[in-house]
Every structure is written in structure tokens, then in C-alpha cells.
Amino acid sequence: MISRRHLLANGCGLLAAACYSTKDAPSLAATPHRESASTMPWLRTLGTQIVDEKGNPVVLQGINLGGWLVEEMWMLPFITEPPSGSDLPPIRDHVSLWNVLQTRLSKASKLRLMAAWRDHWITEEDFRRIRDIGFNCVRLPFLHDLFEEESNPWLWLDKAVEWAGKYGLYVVLDMHGAPGRQSRDHHTGEEGRNRFFYDPSYLERAENLWRNIAARYRDRPEIAGYDLLNEPMGAPNTAMIYLAEDRLYQAIRSVDKRHLLFFEDGYTGLSNMPYPNVLGWTNAVLSAHSYQFQAKSAQDHLNALRGLIANVEQTIYQQRKTPFYLGEFNLEPHGTPQTLVTWAQMLNAQQISWSLWTYKVTMRNGDTSMWGLYHNTHPIAQPLDPYRDSESALIAKMDQVKTANLEENTSLTMALQQALKAK
């Protein structure tokens, strides 16, 4: 979100991320995942539509799984300021969170805590809930760090793909944080870095990462496709975004000719997006995000939607003749559940695929907003304190973030059920 608060050296000549030791990091062999048991149809593009194998139009109607593999402090119950007199830094992002815990405890403890967090935040039951609301897709943000931190770097993506297939959900794999980071924002995993577009070695690492991911999942129809670079706002100019994305496209297509590939604009505007047919991109979907943080009323959100739809119709459908995916949006501030129904219905009518941000939030001081389908309306009873808590205390406190222990934002889930049943 615009203002929300390189693989290891292995024979490909990749460099390790500066914040992690390479000594014990796993190699990323491009081992194909086992054959899918899913009967979900493969997706492809046909003109301005996403269609299934029979040519039937498919509108992806999804939810983002924020907070699972990308920890964003504004939506999680961590204490982020060090105690007075501490030499430890403030926690602003994924890297600083886990560095503080490794410094205080140990690397082994950090890895156990990381696994515990992921086991508590999203489980198979969450995929069932998402299916039951009526969604047909999840967008899964992940960081390149995932493949450098753990002995089994495929564990979490494999789980997501398996669970999604079991419940009839498509998955969009979203590289939220690229090697070197593609902007200065905290949600890249490391606030203030922004080196992806300025050092060719980072692009090479991203190419190899996507090539390995595509090789592993090329036979999995439950994966709708790959979102190459989330919000690439750190590029020195628009051309650099699409030069980098073309390199990533070529890397993936060297091993996977079939999956959809999603290309984001980095908030530079739809009129600056490339023409996939000119570049020879196949199964390409252009994508952007929409947040109206200056909105003063629900009507402002509706006006923004009408403007977006008109822009997509002219700039993407008529000129570029390509499908469009609204990969993130929310109607905070001043949105209403009925406004969300209208958004979903209008997007569906225009064959615009979409994914709402986000599935759940657990804010320290409580939340009554539209940010999460599941949330805590009261202050969290026991905030997680990376500066003082022991490993066992942190794991015990994680029970608070299990979806079963949160409150369902029923006004939102009921509104979405209404919109999704009307699709």
C-alpha cells in the first residue's frame, strides 16, 4: 500500500542479502512441486478478459493475506519502540523485527518464532473461511527474504498452494519485497533501502528467484499467476520499471509459458504502462492499486471508482487490449460496507479482477475500521514485546492473533457475501 505503515550464491552467481548470514542459508533448487490434485481450470488471457480453459470469463475476486509472510507493524500487535536506555533500534519492518529478536535471543530462537508466527497467523481453516465468504482468489505477499531465512524455503508457499487448491481458490504470488527493495517503504521488508533499480545484481537475483518459483509451480493450475513487483515506486523513471519487469517476464517464461503474469505501475499512472502485444508478452495482466487516503466521504470513494473504471476502459482495454487487475484497494477512510458492495459489483461488471486489502488485522489499540475481515475491536490484551519477552512468552501471546480468537467484522463479511453471490 502506498503509505502503509539477492538469493544466495549458488552457481547462479547471486549475492546474499546483507542483513542475513549466508552460511546456513538453503539452496534454491528448482525442484518441481508434486503434481496438483486440483481440478481447477487453468487461466489465460483472451483480449481484455481472463478466461478458463473453455474460454469462459473469470473475474478474480480475492483477498490479500497481509501480515503472514510480510510483517507490517501498523497492522500487528508488536511493541515497536525500544525501552529507555536500550541499544536496540526501533522496529519498522520485517528486517528490524527479526534482527532485534536474533540480537536479543539467538538465530535459532528467531527462526522458531518466525515459524510460530506464521503457524498462528494463517492456517488451513483461514482458506476455508475465505472460500465460504465467496472469494475465488487469495493474493499472497511474500519477501525475497523468505528464501534466505529458513532451511525449507518452500514450506509456506507450498502450504498456501495446497490449501488454496483444496478449497477451490486461485493464488496470486506477489513479490512484495524484491532483493535490494523496490522502494523506500516499510512493506518491502526493509524501510529506506530502495536499491533494486540501482544495482544490477539485485535484478539478477530477482530473475533467479522468479525462475525458481516458476519452475517449481509451473504445473499448478491453482496458481493464477505471479505479481512480479509490488508497488515498484523506487525506480528513477517509469521506463526502468518496465525494463526490469520485462527481464523478470523473460526469466519466468524460460521455464513457465502458461501462468498469468501481473505487471504493476508503481503509482505512475495507467497511461504510462507498456503495451504487452508490442513487447511480445503473453498471458499478461496489467495491474495497479487504489487507496483514497484523502477521501472525506463514501461518495469520494465512489467517484474514485468511476474514474478508475473509465481509465481502465480507455487506457487498458481499448488501447492496450489487455486484462486489468486491481491487486489492492480499501475504502478507508469514510467508506461503508455498502460502498464496498458497490465497488465489488461495479468492478465485476467491467471484468476487472480485484483483491481487497486485507484479510485480518490485530492492532495494539484495537480496530473498528474496514481494514480487516477479522480484527480486535478492543486493545490487544498482551502486546508482543520483542524487547523484553522470552521466546516462550512471545509464542504464548501469539494465540491472540489466531483468527478464531479475533472478532469477525460481520458488516464487511456480510456485505462481501452479498456482492460475491451476485457475481
Automatic annotation (TrEMBL):
Cellular compartments per GO CC = cell surface; extracellular region
Lineage, top-rank taxon, reads Bacteria
Answer whether the UniProt record assigns the keyword Hydrolase to this protein: yes
A GO term for molecular function: beta-glucosidase activity
Q: Do you know which Pfam families this protein is assigned to?
A: Cellulase
Q: Name one GO biological process term.
A: glucan catabolic process
For the keyword Hydrolase, the answer is: yes
Cross-referenced Gene3D superfamilies = Glycosidases
Q: What are the alphabetically sorted keywords of the record? A: Glycosidase, Hydrolase
Q: Where is the Glycoside hydrolase family domain?
A: 117-360
For this protein, the record's PROSITE patterns field holds: PROKAR_LIPOPROTEIN
**Family the entry assigns:** Belongs to the glycosyl hydrolase 5 (cellulase A) family.
Q: Which PANTHER family match?
A: GLUCAN ENDO-1,6-BETA-GLUCOSIDASE B (PTHR31297), PUTATIVE-RELATED (PTHR31297:SF13)
- Tell me the protein's name: Endoglucanase
